[in-house]
Amino acid sequence: MNAPREMWRNFFSRKRRDDEEMESVMHWLASNSSHERTPIHTSILSGNKHVEELLQGHEVRARRELRMEKEIFYKLVKVLRDSNLLTNSREVSVEEQLAIFLFCLSTNASNRTIQERFQHSGETISRYFNAVLEAVVSLSSRIIQLPTINTPIQISSNPKFMPYFKDCIGAIDGTHVPITICPSLQDPYRNRKGGLSQNVMVACDFKCQFVHVSAGWEGSASDARVLQDALAHGFYVPSGKYYLVDAGYANTPNFIAPFRNVRYHLQEQGRSNQRPSNAKELFNLRHAQLRNHVERIIGVLKMRFPILKCASYYPIDAQSDILIASCVVHNFIKQNDGSDNWLNQNSMQVNPTEIVDVPDGDEEYEDDVLSMNERRRAGNIRRNQIAETMWTDYIAYLQQRNN
């Protein structure tokens, strides 16, 4: 009989202690809520005012921070708003949300630095950065599209390339982008220079727009394996057409590479100032002149958004999305006649010490993709046919000019 009585005595004792503790917590909350919190971000130049000042001020200043012309910024805001991807909130307009996002891409700034620039809490900055990132990435299917099968005008209008490259619809390259990742996951991301990066495959047309982007592969992955994965996930080459690739890929009917151990790279041509001496040298020269488009587009992208040269502060999944979003914005700028002539090292807003040295694409194909190995003979036949026809016409042209 004493046991139940003791049990109830303990129960009420615990309940009394719990009630006293709850009363203490409620008292603390009440006492603290009676005092006004001291705001941190009290600058007279709020984030909204800062963006208004940019958009109403000098074009150079706006372009430096927004990474595009003001009229293109307004067009991008309109697309995001009209597509119901972003809306004004009580405290932050779509214009300011996009400006926060672009400032991050152009500076690789920490959350605290962005708080100071736009006068918002860290949670607000993070929330709107992620909202814009998701919105811009969702535009990728509309703005990054595979090219048409028609011969590009950059080829059809140039006798150096036509008719030899009439079936070429673009160029492909691999590029590395630095990443930050926890130590336990680092090994696969370690590239041949010993740093951490993601290997990215980009395909572009001859208008210097991206037509496909595959991001997120580990830095140790070969360019050919990234391409193989892209072909398994939406990237394809129409029948009879092909892309130009560098020596890091197998030479196949759909991906035409230069001849190995044969000059030219464009820099070699400039140094030697000599004419090609055979069909393979001429082919490599013309191949390099055309494929230079993809090298240029990668350079422009990283100059416009220097965060791609740095190990950023974001989670690994977000780091891949940042690369895709950067490509989307690049295409949007090109599609609206934006300029990239103003981009140079002096316009970079990142600390040079944050820039990470990463490798370029693979220097040679590693014979690591069976499906590509099986098609190399057919690729060699196609390449030889192009080179021989080109050389025959080139010799005839020289003879005609000398007569």
From TrEMBL:
<dbReference type="GO" id="GO:0016787">
    <property type="term" value="F:hydrolase activity"/>
</dbReference>
<feature type="domain" description="DDE Tnp4">
    <location>
        <begin position="172"/>
        <end position="331"/>
    </location>
</feature>
<dbReference type="GO" id="GO:0046872">
    <property type="term" value="F:metal ion binding"/>
</dbReference>
<dbReference type="Pfam" id="PF13359">
    <property type="entry name" value="DDE_Tnp_4"/>
</dbReference>
<keyword id="KW-0479">Metal-binding</keyword>
<dbReference type="InterPro" id="IPR045249">
    <property type="entry name" value="HARBI1-like"/>
</dbReference>
<dbReference type="GO" id="GO:0004518">
    <property type="term" value="F:nuclease activity"/>
</dbReference>
<feature type="domain" description="DUF8040">
    <location>
        <begin position="42"/>
        <end position="138"/>
    </location>
</feature>
<dbReference type="InterPro" id="IPR027806">
    <property type="entry name" value="HARBI1_dom"/>
</dbReference>
<keyword id="KW-0539">Nucleus</keyword>
<dbReference type="InterPro" id="IPR058353">
    <property type="entry name" value="DUF8040"/>
</dbReference>
<protein>
    <recommendedName>
        <fullName>DDE Tnp4 domain-containing protein</fullName>
    </recommendedName>
</protein>
<keyword id="KW-0378">Hydrolase</keyword>
<comment type="similarity">
    <text>Belongs to the HARBI1 family.</text>
</comment>
<keyword id="KW-0540">Nuclease</keyword>
<dbReference type="GO" id="GO:0005634">
    <property type="term" value="C:nucleus"/>
</dbReference>
<dbReference type="Pfam" id="PF26138">
    <property type="entry name" value="DUF8040"/>
</dbReference>
